[in-house]
Fold each of these.
Amino acid sequence: MSLVDRLLASFLLVLLLATITTTATAQGGTQIHGNFSTDVQYYNIDSAIGAVVPPQRFGNNAWANFIATHGNFEVGARLESYNPSLAGYPAGQPYQGTGIGYRYAKFTVSDLEITVGNFFEQFGQGLIFRSYEERYLGVDNAIDGVRLKYKPYRGVYLKGIMGQQRAAFDNGFTKGPGIVRGLDAEVSLAELLDSAWTHAGNLIIGGSFVSKYQRDDVSTLVLPENVAAGSFRLNYTTSKLNFYTEYAYKVNDPNNRNGNIYKNGQALMANLTYSVKGFGASVGAHSFDNMFFQSNRAATTPFDLNINYLPPLTKQHTYNLPATLYPYATQPNGEVSGQGEVFWKIKKGSKLGGKYGTKIAVNYSVAFGLDTTRLGLADDTTKIYGYSSKFFTPNLDRMYFQDINIEIRRKLSPTWQLALTYLNFTYDIDVIQGKAGQKVVYADMFVLEGLHNFSEKNSLRFELQHLSTKQDHGNWVTGLAEFTFSPHWFLAVMDQFNYVTTAPTFEKDGKVEAPDRLHYPIASVGYIRSGTRFQVNYGRQRAGIFCVGGVCRQVPAANGLTLSITSTF
């Protein structure tokens, strides 16, 4: 255990002992809170679906957070255990063993906040810096170092960070070789100017600078040891309008993800939303060029040691088939994307709105490759710079993704609600999921969702989903029913059926063969009491993609029993 770990452990122990001898809720006293969660899975052999069965036949992910506060002082720690981790988890480097995965101490004095140890932070929308955690993806790039936040004057906010990123977990977190340094400044004009600001809205201006240091230990290349990136952002808001734009530039950063080229990178995003009662609209556009930014240039996967975050510009679906079969993941090395959405509510009592009103949402999103030109092979320019590009200019011959969806929601009576959704996908599975040589997927989906309230405490929610495509795995149908017996019990059953086609044969990977038609049934039961939730699942899990916020990981096929417990205190 390092000196920092020993000091923070000592602080936490002192505060825990203080809690035992003092009243936690007393003014100025010590307070302790936290949470616990675990997922335990037992794996069955199931050759029909190619289920993954670890040697131990068990997998277990567990986390426990403890946070103690006393006046202006706060200390916290997270204990993690993977014995072993669930199959397919995490997204990047392996996690194994039990130990401290996160610990910190924070002190606030006047307008200065000081954090030592681990922390999560973000500058702007994250184009050049975002440290964050998506626990169920296994993404955690927490910084271990020092963070300062300072408010020198009203409306002026300053941040400074320095440290190394969490890379993996081996009986405790391990760190990557690079050092990350960053500064961020933001000014809110409405706050700064106070009464002198007479506009109805507010304008927020921000800028960031981030650099990483990694020693050049590659003898065959001359690599930059310090790589810098900067960004500038504007955010204008009113009661009805929100406009946000951010531009980022990154100097040459040869790495495993871009083929060790010395080309500079840049990113631009712009989003506009407008909303009034009963109506809303949004439009956005993003462009990314050579924007992988990792604190280890030799990182083995795209999930490890990411310094930045490039938000996707697609609708984040919650229904099972569109969310897990063909979700879109941002392409940092080159992408131009756009999205538009309109939402409106038809008035109650009208012919179209019905007695209770009708809600309609139409969304369109598309992503293309960036318009690039491979540099000539007559000299070393291709090896050094790779390609030239026309920023914010799409390659219309290479569509990565397109999603057209329409959703209609209507309350039929005090006890019944229905929603109907249509989705049309174009999905370049070769680029997005790395399935080389696979054909572009064209899919249509229909989803019918219903909710029936038997009483104030008991309800039934159901979904019927259908996906049709002639590519990849063919056609799917999913049925889901969830019974809720408030306030404690819930029961759910779901079956995914990959019937592929109604025809006797199906072309897959260039071969025409009889399709394998497979069911993936699963049943769940759960119990909730106060801050604790128990859930047990049994059945099949198909291989697929699990995504959160445009970041995805592969989930292997599995058959077995899963127990999940979460609790807060």
Note: Residues 19-27 have pLDDT under 50 and may be disordered.
Amino acid sequence: MQPYYRYIPVEKEGDDHISADQERRLFDRILKYTGVFGSVQGVTMMVTLVINMVKSRLLGPVGYGITESLNRSADLVKSSTNLGIATLAVPEISRHVNDADPDGLADKVRLTRSWALLTALLGMVACLMLAPFLSRWAFDGDSGYTVSFMVLSLAVAAAAVTGGETAVLKGAGMLRQIALSQLFSGLLSLVISVPLYWLFRFDGIVPALALTGIGSMFVTCSYSFRRFRYKVCPFSWSHLRQGTGMIGFGIFFTVTAFFSAWAWSFIAKFLTAEGGGHLTGTYSAGYMLVSYLTTLLLAVTDSEYYPRLSAAGGDLKDAHRLMDSQATAMCMLAGPVVILFMLCMPVVVFVVLDYSKFQESVMLAQMAVIGLYFKSVSQPVAYLVLARSDSRIYLLQETVCYLLLVACVMAGYRLAGVVGLGLAFAVWGLMYLLLSLLISRFRYGYRMSSGLLRLFVVQGVLVATGAFCVFEQALIWLLPGAVACVVSVGLSVRFFGTHTTFFSSLLRKTARK
């Protein structure tokens, strides 16, 4: 009799199951690069936590609120002007990596850089011109941050260039360089931000944001320039028009990115209006911790899985198999991580932030992180729309997604305050998962395999148990919460022990020593 948590590979039409060896190699690859990018993001997260420890003690919740409002408003300009180059150029480049003609790859890289440079100039000019409006929008009619947004126009331009160079690295399969650029960008932000916050307090926020963005651009460029010499033709229409297909999708991408940035900016503005800078800072600090964990766990999906899915996007059977395997692996990793995060959140806030000022952020983060469990499955599924450049469906999917986000946050906060705000992100994660599965089912014929569905339900029950235990906020509930965590870890270890060579390789290496 098979154990109830055994994974069953997705079936191919007209073919048997994929072989156990193929399945093992696929899960080995996922686990390997999850470890690589997870480790890098872990170091980066630790660096960022140090920065936030300094920020929380020097600036408090109000400083977080100001930073959140500046970031979200600047993101609105970035998203509205970058045409999605950082994402849409990846499949364009990845399809030419294995070509016999290296000139085709070099031409795609030059095309990507040319459009990235143009969007950088567009973003900088837009931010400069809209600075007074952005200041009044973000800070309830206060135009005193106009100069701040003018300075942040440099960060907007740098982000567009960084996005183009990151697309080059991802499309060319330069995974080691991506990891190193992320690592050194994080370390550079530590070197830049901490002295500025320490010396100038609130006046150091804008210079820190601007210089961090510029520094990240130089770090990323230093890696991509080694493989591809920097060549651009930003004013040659005969060259630029080769990317009109990508830019056509980019217009749809920009509209959806605008909705995304608008949604997050609206949330910051809504919370500021409801509870002032203190509430915005509480939300920002709590959700910041969740977003770091999300990046830590799902970094491999964006950096390694998406280019691989893009290369297979034309073959739906192969794409479905990749989606199923990636979603299964992410589900089994996310379950124990989410439960452990919920149980340890009070300690994390005590160490990272000033607990007396950010106590409300604990429950917000504990409830919001449930959404990460749903996202671990929804993100591998939702990426198929991007991989196939299905512009209208992408517009529909993402527009509905962010309208749901705004509705969930407003309803959650007004019904249950800060706790409801955290639950809103969990509910939104579930709704986005259902939306992604619905679109993938009717548009591309994708259906979750019975093995993935079974594992998702089992780990989901354990996550729900952990959430209930922390929600009760009593020490007596820590024991069943810890039991749920141990069971979840045990299931994940058993799964990866069966479907990868990781543990057997580790045992062999240990035995040799």
Note: Residues 106 and 229 are 9 Å apart (CA to CA).
Amino acid sequence: MTHGIVSAPQPEAVEAGADALQKGGNAVDAAIACALVQTAVDPQMCGIAGFGSMHLYLSEAGKHLFLDFHGRAPSKATPEMWEDLIIKEAEDGFGFILKDYVNDIGYGAITTPMSLRAYDEALKRYGTMTLAELIEPAIGYAENGMLVRPHINYFWNSDEGGGKAPHSMRLTENAEARKIYVKSDGSLHRLGETVCNPDMAETYRCIAREGVDDFYTGEIGKRIITDMEANGGLLTAEDLQDAMPKEADPLWGEYRGLRVATNQPPGGGVMILEMLNILENFDLGKMGHNSPDYIATVSEAMKIATVDKDNHVGDPNFVDIPLEHLTSKDYGAEMAARIKSGEKTHVPRFNPGGTESKDTTHVSTADEHGNCVSLTHSLGMPSGVITPGLGFMYCGCMAVFDPRPGHTGSIAPGKSRFTAMCPTILFKGDDPFFVVGAPGATFITMGVLQAILNAVDFGMNAQEAVMAARFCTNSETIDVTNRITRRTQAELEKRGYPVRRSPLSYHFAGVHALCKTNAGWDGGADPGRDGMAMSV
């Protein structure tokens, strides 16, 4: 590595980030170049009308911080507006299923678009290049076409069940979306075909020319609000004007002598620290990687953290979170003792259904100056809505709010919903050692946790750490990928655990990581998301 390294789920985006580094840009420039291309080549996983969390360790400037840009409920939202429409809660806790999908598909699903403002602010404060420069590759992919890769094809054509809207509806319900993603014969574009989006290209050119303010308070913003008002959307001009990322300090912990920096609530960092604190009380290496003992122990830690998240973690501006207690070593030891006693944690759900769509992406970068960035950004569950002539899809994050008033995740105007996003950096002393993050909804924290354990407890390099077979437990069931042995599954079932096998070999988040070695930075990209790591 001469200039730096980039790891992300889309090869096109990785190339853009690497090009930014090669031109003399820093890790922030590379991350934003990558993120912008991601919005063009993976437009249901992320977009300029999305949200996210950006972890910045800036060695040169002596800064270590987060730019958090979580999705907010629009100012027209009210706690009780969907109370009578509840069908059930998702089994994994990622949202509620309502009658006619009003919180999931269409204009009612949209939260405040935050991503574009955050990209621009990151560059203005900490980058060396401009958004106008870095958006050029994204314009090219929008204009000339994105290639339908295996993961895109899988997402478009899969139905994860549980009562959520089929993924295809997110491409076919809105006339503008159909114009882009549906062919003349009525079918979606297939694997290997090219999808052009000239309206997105023109919108991006306008942003490059006029600046990001045009999206939030200018002509693009006016078109957005006109569309919302004409179609019963909750988003207002004031919501757009108030969209601004929040700068926050990292949430700190420690695991086996390493310092762990992750994000504050409403991000998922609290779950990472809680699970690590519990698992530090076990000799995981002695158990053996993905052995029945290991999976049962880690799964119980996952369940405990899930219950605590459901009960206590939300937007700190609206919820009093016992953060010090949840992330304390004493509480971790107490929960470890509970696991050792044989007690199994129950994860309550309101009329549970199935699992949810995991519509997010990630990028990790590091540069020659010691700067590191871990950025997770998303559309949540894409709303399926595209304003005529603008080309980009809005996020659909209202589905994650609790439609029952009086709960931690209940709807309130201006409130951010919990997100499992947890871009995390582990340090050996003062030096970054492991940079990690993932897409994957409620699977995110579970995937990031396992990558950390793989690197720290089992000595894996970055690629090994993200490729190792994963499992996930955020309900009563242990979900396993198809590479977890059936012998292990049988032993877990003998112990009384329901086990559900995925047909996928790589699943439960799409983890991407960088690991510092004696030879420099080593990159790992999750094969299940089509990505790659590239150093320049």
Note: The radius of gyration is 21 Å.
Amino acid sequence: MSLRRHWWIGVSAALLLVYVTVSLSVPRGATLAAFGDITQLLLLFIASVVMAANAVSERGQTRLFWSLMAVGCFMWTVSQGGWVFYEVLLRRDLPDPYFGDIVLFIHVVPFMAALALRPHLAQEERKLYFSTLNFLMLLIWWVFLYAFIVFPDEYVAMNVQTYSRNYDVLYLVENLVLLGALGLLTAGTRGAWRTIYRNLTISMALYTFCSEAMNAAIARGQYYTGSIYDIPFVAGVCWLVWVGLLARKLKPTGEPPPPERSRWMALAPRLAMIAILSLPVMGFWAVFYLDAPIHLRHFRLLVTLAATLVLGICVFIRQYLLDHELMRLLDTSHRSLENLQRLQSQLVQKEKLASLGQLVAGAAHEINNPLAAILGYAELLSSNGTLGSNQVSMAQKIGQQARRTRDLVSDLLSFARQAPAEKALVDLGSLLHRAVQMETLQLEGKKVRVETRTAPDLPRIWGNANQLFQCCLQIIGNAMDALEEVGGGVLTAEARREGDEVVLEFSDSGPGIREPLRVFDPFYTTKPIGKGTGLGLSATYGVVQDHHGQIACHNHPEGGAVFVLHFPVATTATLPEAQAAKA
């Protein structure tokens, strides 16, 4: 690519030398006009091809930038093609007015839209329709200016002198706006993009200077195709081609957005607001203050009304899309906040379980030794025949409480020793049915009805069947106790698939959960003393987390508690054979 760029520099220098020589040596006529027109047309066509090639090789905002540059160059080529058609093929001067002037004026708009994209910034994902609307509104605005200022004296009531003067001034303003934007981008960027913007500024500056020189020469009757006035134009287009080739080598990437990015983001809607607000002002000026025939003033008023309607529709569409995008972002933010809160709760719960497990593991072993001694001496005292009945009864009560304490310590040790057990493929549907059947055996004399719903062809999960079975028993047992307190009710156990997860849902018609946020805390229980330790749901929480699942609970609005367990479906990547092969 470096050789290609150096080759183009050599070609450009040789072409400029030949153009200067021909301009100075060949007299004005058809030959010189053909040489100038065809040379300029070929250069513009090459620029269009280079810009289009850059668009094909890039992605994202950068691709859109070069696509717009290619569109501008192609429109420029079409305008120049009209010169070839009239001066080379038909061998006559261009008509006045010339239709290509409209295309030449509009070709700057895609360049402006390309710069408005600011491809030098590392942009987040954007919707294409926003960029399209920005370009469309910019195009409509400049077309309106042309139709309001130039068109009436060009086609409505022909006035060559006024038309030429207005066109030259408006075209100069347009090019100066483009140069101003390029200058700001050059000053505010660095690296490869700064090099590209700087060279684009030089190219457009050469063209602007050439355009003004040509217009001045045309006004004096001194310009003709192939003259010395075309040399800056040829140099500017050669430089434009050089920019495209340079970009293919530099491969510019996005920069981090600057702190003042928010002001950049607010600039586009402010400019759109100013453009729309300027329309009624210009219409008022055209009707009441412009010194022109009545039909021209009416035409300008109609143009203003049409532009107001079209731009108003564009603004309405943009606002409608922005509202939808805002609602989508709010919904995404809400879901992200919920996920963050759930993750935070899981982390806190894990820390609680881990800290408590370490504390319990150390304390339980220390308690077991004196507890064994208390239990042993209590049994000796209760079996001693020399003691009275009161003393024996007291010794038996001491032994009973010691055994209860021993069972509690055993539960604590079981809770503290939670460790990944052997896992296999588990059918949660059949496991749920077994858990419900086991608990149903204890429903004699209780007004509790159990309903079980299992989806057909439920996929299996990877887990420990015994641990998951105990989790189901724990949740069902708690629901049974809650329903027994209110004299009966309905417990519904459901197994279904949601996407890549198997979901177990337990819901009852009981009084509900008093504090849903604390229900998984260790030792938290609402049962009477002696009936629960508050470790069952904490252990369940740990088992579900060990299976890479999620557990949550809430109350029904109409009453009753709901426990929902999510487990990932077993896939090839989760099987131990696949994990071992990957390792």
Note: The two ends are 43 Å apart (CA to CA).
